[in-house]
Write a structure and sequence with these properties.
Rna Polymerase Sigma Factor, Chain: A, 8 helices
């Protein structure tokens, strides 16, 4: 993003802010979707984050740090949406049936297991995972995006990764018990 566009938006140029939004909205939605796991709530979070961005953009001291600042606004909005609505919502998609090869079946099973593990994480555990593994942010960049010290970011990423690993292991144990229970 060009710094002059950010500076123009900071001065109240709505067209410049619109250019920022057009360039960043899809990525912000993807982050929210990965954290919240619900399209409607993700849209709400991004809308809230962009509203906050417009209101507070003049206070952004370093226009080159726009991305990290926007990530922080989205993560905070996800936390707010998650706290406001703790009930589970299901998303139903119609999936066309196609023959599945053994390799494809294993990939789908792995993805589904990872999804189940990720859903077991608390909302605040999802953010560092998404920022690191989806966006490829380093620990210092995660710290900046979340507005926390680097050591805290490293700790949150470590414990979130461990929690995800534990959730996947628990899923494995649960499936193993269900299979052995059926055959007994």
């Amino acid at each position: 993003m060009q710094i002059d566009v950010v500076q123009a938006a900071q001065r109240g140029d709505l067209d410049a802010f619109e250019a920022i939004v057009i360039g960043k909205a899809e990525r912000l939605f993807t982050i929210a979707r990965l954290i919240l796991r619900d399209a409607g709530r993700s849209e709400d979070a991004v809308q809230e984050a962009l509203t906050q961005a417009w209101r507070n953009l003049p206070s952004l001291r370093d226009p080159s740090r726009l991305d990290g600042w926007l990530y922080r606004l989205v993560v905070n909005a996800c936390n707010d949406v998650g706290r406001a609505d703790r009930k589970f919502t299901a998303e139903i998609r119609v999936i066309r049936e196609e023959p599945v090869s053994v390799d494809d079946a294993a990939r789908v099973a792995d993805r589904d297991q990872l999804e189940r593990g990720f859903q077991r994480l608390r909302l605040e555990q999802r953010a560092p995972i998404v920022l690191h593994y989806y966006l490829g942010l380093s620990v210092p960049e995660i710290a900046e995006s979340l507005g926390i010290p680097e050591g805290t970011a490293q700790s949150r990423l470590h414990y979130a990764t461990e929690a995800l690993r534990d959730a996947i292991d628990a899923d494995d144990r649960g499936r193993g018990a269900a299979i052995s229970g059926r055959t007994a």
